[in-house]
């Protein structure tokens, strides 16, 4: 479903002519299969968000190839990437990333608008989705009028409204209390079992990692793969 081949990534910082190169990812070879829940763990600064941003096309690798759902995405133009994202990817973030000037309904509706879906169908889909995540009664509320857990549910509704086959999540439970965290994790497990949705989750949280079929560890920008095998971890370095 997601394939990364010999990915290297470096950032250039500083003024033009005086740039300094920061190498962040080195020789990443990895695959995520359809229907897997994969957790990416590693210390702060090890390159987890960079890896996820590469999968989502928000940044391009310095070298190497990325395939998502069979498509060599590294060669897509910005416009093609945007369409590809709408068709294949959903996103969850720690900070929810809701638009403050839009109601819960409008935030959840956004991907449908971008996809050009008509008003009647949008209304039906959004209300079904808000119902499913338990915030239908807050459809007319702005993010500032919602609790953290409610905002997260609206954000999840927006992530899932186009029924994406792959969801990329960066610390999705980072701002949630333990009740809301458990509910989100069980929703992820249900989606995975019922619809076969593939999840890649960056996390520092053991409870989140515990729902993953496989955990990938990044250390200083390199993969240190840890496969769960009946409770024992077997490490495989690249
Ligand atoms: N846009 C950028 N420009 C320059 N350096 C960057 C940029 N984004 C990330 N970095 C650097 O790349 C390294 C990896 O960052 P990244 O955010 O991928 O780590 P992370 O493992 O997700 O960390 P955390 O757990 O703290 O979120 C860090 O040293 C960071 O400073």
From TrEMBL:
SMART domains, from UniProt? AAA
TM spans (from-to)? none
List the signal peptide residues: none
Taxonomic superkingdom: Bacteria
Q: Which InterPro entries match?
A: AAA+_ATPase, ABC_transporter-like_ATP-bd, ABC_transporter-like_CS, ABC_transpr_LolD-like, MacB-like_ATP-bd, P-loop_NTPase
One example of the protein's molecular function in GO is: ATP binding
| Keyword ATP-binding assigned | yes
Q: Which UniProt keywords apply?
A: ATP-binding, Nucleotide-binding, Transport
Q: Which residues form the ABC transporter domain?
A: 2-236
Q: Which CDD domains match?
A: ABC_MJ0796_LolCDE_FtsE
Q: What is this protein called?
A: ABC transporter ATP-binding protein
Source taxonomy lineage? Bacteria, Bacillati, Bacillota, Bacilli, Bacillales
